[in-house]
Amino acid sequence: MFIDIHTHVSTREQWLSYQKKAKPASSVVEGRQVVKIISLAWCYKDSPTEPDVETLLKFAATEPNIYVAGSINMDANIGQQLKRHEELFQQKKIVAIKLYPGYQHFYPYEDKVTAIAELCAKYNKPLIFHSGDFYDIHGTALLEYARSIHIDKLARRCPNTKIVISHFGFPHLLDTAGVVSQHDNVYTDISGTIDDSGLTKKELSALTKQYIADLQRVLRYYPNIKNKIMFGTDFAGEETPLKHVEPYRRVIQSLFNKREQANAFHDLAEKLYFA
Ligand SMILES: [Zn+2]
């Protein structure tokens, strides 16, 4: 079994295609199937493709294995949204909050983030940051805000908040490892880096191998972060470049021994999001 902590599954069709892709390959131990996925809300309302927290909650209510992370629009009334997210934590309807610094042009260490970090700490749930590269259909996102190094100050200021840096901060893998290594309260995931807008099988395999090699290099320098890395895919549907599950599973299996795999596939996620 495994937990995918980073998906954008928001329709029945996407969920079916996810499950199909997550079926264990013959080489994989029987029984290691998805039990839970976390679907992350978008920070804006009224996007035709990406649901905000309320829309996502309606969908997830019908699917027992899909859990929701809320999201705060930093350009709207934050106090009001905090109130709503506090209710959602109390009702156990969300398992985390996600923020999008690169899309919304703010730094994670800005003062306005502190209240959100404190709310997450109060309910002992992670604060997730989109970090690194974008899937930016509007062409407005800025990489500068999305660099994982900017988590450093926030992590120091809010030591009781569990922080997750998405996508290993790609392409700043070493920066991310540095931040995760420095702070007990910072974690990361491997999602979203295997971007496929029409790769051949061979190219996909080469890309996956490259990612494994790069992460091996990072872990050579930072072996102490091995137990702070989680499985995630960023699966967003067949019609997007984020449509893979199996290559990410291969990454975890290639990097880690059996015990470490259990941590990355489910134990750590269980502890951070569901305890
Ligand atoms: Zn994502």
Short note summarizing the structure:
The protein is an alpha/beta fold and 275 residues long. The chain has helices at 12-22, 53-60, 78-90, 101-104, 111-122, 151-157, 173-182, 201-221, 246-255, 258-274; strands at residues 2-7, 34-40, 66-71, 96-99, 127-129, 163-165, 186-189, 229-230. It contains ten helices and eight strands.
Explain what this protein looks like in three dimensions.
This protein is α/β, with parallel strands linked by helices. It has a single domain (2-274), classed as Metal-dependent hydrolases (TIM Barrel), CATH 3.20.20.140. Helix content is 41%, strand content 13%. It has ten helices and eight strands. The chain has helices at 12-22, 53-60, 78-90, 101-104, 111-122, 151-157, 173-182, 201-221, 246-255, 258-274, and strands spanning 2-7, 34-40, 66-71, 96-99, 127-129, 163-165, 186-189, 229-230. It has an eight-stranded parallel β-sheet with strand order 1-2-3-4-5-6-7-8, with helices on both faces. Strand 2 (34-40), helix 2 (53-60) and strand 3 (66-71) form a beta-alpha-beta unit. The longest helix is centred in the C-terminal third of the chain and has 21 residues, at 201-221. The chain is globular and about 50 Å long. The chain binds zinc ion. The site of zinc ion has 5 residues, from loops. Zinc ion (ZN) binds at residues 6, 8, 40, 192, 234.
